[in-house]
Structures are given as structure tokens and as C-alpha cells.
Amino acid sequence: MRKARRLIATAAMGGLLALPLVPATPATAGPASASRLSSGHAAAVAAHKATVHPRVSCGDGTGRTAGFEGELGWGGVGSDVSPAYIDVDGRLWSSCTGTAYLYVSYHDLGNSHNPMIASVGAGKNVGVHWSTEGHWAPYSNIAIDVCTRSNGWRCGAPVHV
Prior knowledge:
Elements: H1 2-13, H2 31-35, E1 48-52, E2 55-57, E3 65-75, E4 85-94, E5 100-108, E6 111-113, E7 116-120, E8 125-131, E9 140-148, E10 154-155, E11 159-160
Antiparallel strand pairs: 1-3, 2-3, 3-4, 4-8, 5-6, 5-7, 5-9, 9-10, 9-11
């Protein structure tokens, strides 16, 4: 521990950014702490994850649906030390006769965004792995939704996190 503090102090003297060294405790050590961070992002603030299952009816009276099964992760404050992010990982599928589309909506810097992040054809499923590209502003009003062109354009209820 003393050696690590000396290394950090030496780095600080050399003009490099020094972060406080916090000793590991049972609550912060081990694989459980790593799972609190979103895939591919080492955020210094609490990361959030939610399991999401948005669905949309095919609209053909059969009860068939299209949907997404996966996780939505978000966090960060929009700085060099704690970049903001949204991650979506899971599977998009359609039992409808038309294509299904996955959208994520969010706000940053007062702007709203609603990109289509995946699509899949009738009777198929596809893996989804998507992340935001800009990391300099925190994200808010995050939601995920599935839409389909089966029996006309229709969207399910968005899942807000």
C-alpha cells in the first residue's frame, strides 16, 4: 500500500493526474464490484444496469410479438475521469410477419435522440451490442422500445430506466 501511494505521489509531482487510492474492502473488492460497471466502461461513479423486455404486438390477432431481451447500462458524469455512456446488450427477435426495430431514446445537453440501433427480419433473432459514441455529457430520460412493420407500423410501450 505504501509503495502504491509513493507511485501516485511521484506521478502527481510529475504533472500527471493523481487519483486517491482507496483500499479494497469486502464491499468493493472482487467480481461483484466489476459487475456494477458497464461493459467496456470504467466509470468512477455508480454504474446502473437494468434488465429490459420491451415488446410489441404483431397486430394480427394471434398474440405473437416482437421484442428485446437484454440489459441497458448507463452511468458516468461526462468527464475524462468518468465518461458518460449508455450500453445496450441482448437479443432482438420477431415472430411477426414484418421486420422488428429496436430504438433507444435519451437526452443529452438539452437535445433528444432516438436512434434505431438494430433490426431483424420476420421469424429471426439477432444479437445487439450498442454503445453511445459521445461521452462528454450525462444522459437522461433513457428508454428502449421495439417497433414493427407487421400489419402496419406499430410500437410497443417504451421501457424507461
